[in-house]
Amino acid sequence: MATTSTAPPVLVVGAGPTGLTAAHLLGSRGVRVLLVERNATTSDDAKAISLDDESLRTLQCAGGLDEAVYPILVPGTGTKYFGIGGRPLVHARGTGNQRLGHPFKNPFAQPDLERVLREQLRRHPSVDVRFDTRLTALVAQRPDRVRVSLRTGGQDGPVEELDVRYVLGCDGGRSTVRDLLSIPMRGRSFPDVWLVVDTLQDTHDQRYGMHHGDPDRPVVIVPGRDGRCRYEFRLKPGECEAGAPPPLSLVRQLLRPYREITPEQVERAVAYSFHALLADRLRDGHCFLLGDAAHMMPPFAGQGLNSGVRDAANLCWKIEEVLAGRACDALLDTYDTERRPHARAVIDLSVRLGRIVMTTSRPRALLRDVLVRMAMHTPPGRRYLTEMRYRPDTRVRSGAVVSLDGPGHEFVGRMLPQPRVLHGPRHLLTRLDDVLGPGWSLLGIGVTDADWAAVARAGLPEATAVDVFLDDRAPRDRAGRTGIADADGRLDALLTGLTGSFALVRPDRLVAAVFTPERAEYVGVKLRHFAADGPTTTPAPPSPTPDPGIHHDSMGVAR
């Protein structure tokens, strides 16, 4: 028999990397969270293997969680691509200057990451974690809440109904939340079958992944920590079907050019095919889809897990703003507006990389190798490939941002870089985000006290006020403002040309606006569209018409 009880305002469904990150981001802001996971513990499957600089920055913003994660990472140097015959083509390693404050691409083992994220939730007393607990129904959505049904244990376990403000579906590619909401995924699945083998006691010690684009047998090798190494082989027809257990003889055959293997040294071996899918909508009333529940992509860009972390970073601060009474529901609509274009672009990039880098067509591989070598002989081509400028632009062009003409417009909608800065009267060497704090921040770049006074009347979001001192000047704290200055040339290089301007930075470190004092009021008016006491907002498009015979506020799910 179901029991009804009170609950935290946010239910996170799924304790994989995306759900655990969301719980940390909300918990670090003091939001009460219930995190449920249908399995008895975190996963032992080493699925994702690469954490990028943006994800590490998100963990840094979640109460300094990056410090707990670094011991399980290999601070990486990108990906090295090889062509026909094993000849090196290019080492794609980013700009190499840790633009976001962290290494560019970092191998890890997913079980280790989930274990650390789970253990570190103890620092957040507002987060309640329940394993062996599954969501069984979304009973009804109402204007201010959604009623959910949870079962603990097996089929005969106790059932509990809770009223929560928001449900975050972080429950993977076979998402229960997405199924209960009847949200379709659109895209395509690929017939190609890949064998993924995670090995132990391996001798590879490279800090980069290796993509071997030999059309006869495309192979990916990603060394990890403590003798772990992942191998991915594109299989030929008849070698193994997707989902079937691969025989040890096949594993040994494919690994033989690289190492000998014993059964005890095989941590995981699975044959599977890939998908390129995106949910029709990422929000339905009080429910949201994140991570693989929202999008699935081939692994060749290394962005599956990172895209889920990016979802959590975009959404969680918005939920906290609404729960705290500082923002209205319109801010939550920007989750889909801001995340969908980039998720679609990353999916498309992953597909293209698979077709080009992992092709089985010898003519296409020969053409690829020739074009890459020609490009590497030109400075623009070399920068394009080595700095991975082919990755999609992450810029947010529509949502909780205000774009203006003039100096600094290129920053708006993009992540603010994170140089190290000198901070305060003692000139402490500090990462920029550690100065900005967890909420909004407002950087005044070489501005006056009168400029600050003008901006204070503009109705901007409440923010940490930061004075930026350029041209090798020492930082000084003033009443209500902290001072930072350049430590290594990067801050000056970043903000040169913006003297006399302000940069408004969101909690997820996206630049919301760059403006001069006389345009501050305009920025404030535009952002008041999202404020709790702002203007009336346009209602979101209705969900698809429910099936006949179901009450209008029902999710259409039988209990």
List the helices and strands and how they pair.
Elements: E1 3-5, E2 10-13, H1 17-27, E3 33-37, E4 50-52, H2 53-61, H3 66-69, E5 79-82, E6 88-92, E7 105-107, H4 110-120, E8 127-131, E9 133-142, E10 145-152, E11 159-164, E12 166-169, H5 176-180, E13 185-189, E14 194-199, E15 209-212, E16 219-223, E17 229-234, H6 248-255, E18 266-272, E19 275-279, E20 283-284, E21 287-289, E22 295-296, H7 304-323, H8 330-357, H9 362-376, H10 379-386, E23 420-423, E24 428-431, H11 432-436, E25 441-445, H12 449-456, E26 464-469, E27 482-486, H13 490-495, E28 501-505, E29 511-515, H14 520-527
Parallel strand pairs: 1-11, 2-3, 2-12, 3-8, 5-15, 12-21, 25-26, 26-27
Antiparallel strand pairs: 4-7, 5-6, 9-10, 10-11, 13-19, 14-17, 14-18, 15-16, 16-17, 19-22, 20-21, 23-24, 23-27, 25-28, 28-29
What would a concise description of this structure say?
The chain has 559 residues and is of the alpha/beta class. It is built from 14 helices and 29 strands.
Structural descriptors:
559 residues, seven-stranded mixed sheet, 29 strands, single chain, alpha/beta, 26% helix, disordered C terminus, 14 helices
